[in-house]
Prior knowledge:
The structure is a homotetramer.
Chain A: H1 21-40, H2 43-50, H3 57-60, H4 64-81, H5 93-122, H6 126-152, H7 162-182, H8 187-201
Helix pairs in contact in A: 1-2, 1-5, 4-5, 4-6, 5-6, 5-7, 5-8, 6-7, 7-8
Chain B binds a DNA duplex through residues 1-3, 12-13, 20-21, 42-44, 52-59, 62-64.
Amino acid sequence: MARNQQPWATRTARDRSDAPARGRLLDAAETVFARRGYGATTIADITAEAEVSRAGFYVYFASKEEIFRVLAVRVRDAFLAAQDVPGVDQDDVREVVGASTAAFIAAYARHLPLLRLLEQQAQTDDDVRAVWQETQERPIHRSARYIRRLAAEGRAAPVADPLAVARAVGGMSIQFARLTASDPSGYDAAVRDVTAMFLHLLGIGPDR
Amino acid sequence: MARNQQPWATRTARDRSDAPARGRLLDAAETVFARRGYGATTIADITAEAEVSRAGFYVYFASKEEIFRVLAVRVRDAFLAAQDVPGVDQDDVREVVGASTAAFIAAYARHLPLLRLLEQQAQTDDDVRAVWQETQERPIHRSARYIRRLAAEGRAAPVADPLAVARAVGGMSIQFARLTASDPSGYDAAVRDVTAMFLHLLGIGPDR
Amino acid sequence: MARNQQPWATRTARDRSDAPARGRLLDAAETVFARRGYGATTIADITAEAEVSRAGFYVYFASKEEIFRVLAVRVRDAFLAAQDVPGVDQDDVREVVGASTAAFIAAYARHLPLLRLLEQQAQTDDDVRAVWQETQERPIHRSARYIRRLAAEGRAAPVADPLAVARAVGGMSIQFARLTASDPSGYDAAVRDVTAMFLHLLGIGPDR
Amino acid sequence: MARNQQPWATRTARDRSDAPARGRLLDAAETVFARRGYGATTIADITAEAEVSRAGFYVYFASKEEIFRVLAVRVRDAFLAAQDVPGVDQDDVREVVGASTAAFIAAYARHLPLLRLLEQQAQTDDDVRAVWQETQERPIHRSARYIRRLAAEGRAAPVADPLAVARAVGGMSIQFARLTASDPSGYDAAVRDVTAMFLHLLGIGPDR
DNA sequence: AATGAATGAGGCTTCATTCAT
DNA sequence: GATGAATGAAGCCTCATTCAT
């Protein structure tokens, strides 16, 4: 889209073939990894999907591991960015909790295939492990920070250590996100239930 | 039987423990899969670990997929069996919840490597998917049943639908089980915290 | 069948399982070789068909080559024996030629699968080659001898050297035998046509 | 094209003749199949003969079966093409029969090894069977057509149905072609005898 | 920047064959 | 004789990767 912001550009967007090859390869890799898993994916699968020659892959990436690492970062960033919920009244705990729960579940469900692979490859590849840990931990720590602040301000009375509560809520949310991924129609109920339990664990009763 | 006809024989060969090859192969497969993941594991790795010839593998299993499927069933059974907690006073909700939480977290942490692979392969292999789903769902449904009974008997006032609570608690427990797997010293705290949150979600206050 | 010629024998013929294993293996080998060809046939195929254990094969035969050699002899003998046509008036050339042509075509068509393999393996295995050559040459030489006698007695005037005529008639017969094997209904016409051409090549006109 | 930019270059590598690898593989396959038969031939044999790496084989062919199928077509075409005998006076039956008999026997003898394999593999592989049948039937039908024309024009009085005569002559020719293959010195006599018998079956007397 | 051609390395699988019982 | 279990040897095939152009 940014491409057309330059009025002097003469080429009109022609199908995928004028996207730069590197980007096409990354998109293709994401698609194929999601479809066939890490191990079963071959370089040939990726280049076929990207409509690039096999050798063309090596112009941009040194190996399957490397393209995966690049992809891992992309997924982490997308996943974390999707959790910034702007336009929420920071003073309304219920609204904050509801909105961030909704965002988390939605983002997790959306990126589930790649997140699974991330976790998987984290067992093997140290670089991926670092990315995966950040992907996992950052939302939890952010949440824990928030809970600590609420507790300090006397606006919540968490049942357990804030970090433990944050982790627990993270666990729940993931569980429901997986459910949502296999049955998207359950999304609203999932958000409602998790929000309610989150609030309850904060010692905050249901809305009226 | 013939083996005992010669009392002076020091046991006819068979130094390789004396487990029959099939069992050795399954144990070896479990070890190797846990160590190197599914994709990176080769038949040669498994047979080397089992001290069996490469060809010997095919006497009992047709492929890596097949031995994994057999292993999947074994893991599911072990994991589910580990959650039967005998000798618990069924009338004491706190004790039941505490014991089953402890058992679940311990079992999950213990089998984590294979459970991860189970989930992973469930994406690809329909048979494994069935086993994985049972592994996942059975504890949750059992837990949901228990919650429903407590609610019906007026001994608990769950914050949300019993199935949702069960699922949420499952999610938490998994989260803490993973933590425990990487840092076993946190086990007691994990059990304590999850138990407390579980009870809280059941509307049951802290012990005295 | 010979088994029941001994009146003192008490065992009645019970299905294949009391045929001695060696014979069962040979029969099985013939069946399987005919069905799958030489190369594709495995020892396991043969023993399965014979309902004998894999190792049992080696009690009687040292290898696939060896059992094939034994089979080759059996086939050669059966094929040659089938060409003895008793009860034919040796003075009636037309009858002799007709009967032996019929017998040859029938025998060739019947044993075609194994004869093909014989020829095939003759390329590779010297023992088989000897058997194959005899199988091929004996009928031709016998036929040539007959033609020579007829010529000497002035009862025929062969168009070419008796051996060449015999060879030519052999070639025709094989061609029609193959046709017959794939379409048995053509047998009578084949015999009639070949007989007519055979007689013609002997300078003997059609029957009245 | 770039190759000629450096006039001093002594030809960029490519000592392996300069036939492209695919052609070399086909030639090699023909050689090796003829030498060792189908079953005994391995991919490694072929690639060694072609001076190509084992993996190189799979760039052009998916399997031994496939390269054989391609070869089958090549052999069929070569065999059939060798039977076009130009420069023959179509009005001289003796010349036509003699020339086509000679061509057939020569072509069959020359391609005997591969033709044998063709027949052999026709039992197993449907594609090969189709090629083999055409290889077999086309000369016979062409010959039958010719005989029918001669008969219609009153220039021949075949002893039997033209198709039967054609088939019979085919059978003879094959028989003598095989003989020729194992003893090339007999070629002329074979052609003479088969031609004589062919003409005789057409009811055409010997030359003068 | 891009690619067609080629290959080294490595895993999978089959199979004839042996051996202890 | 007969067999279940096991294995060495060998072939097939795939794939990441390189290289000349």
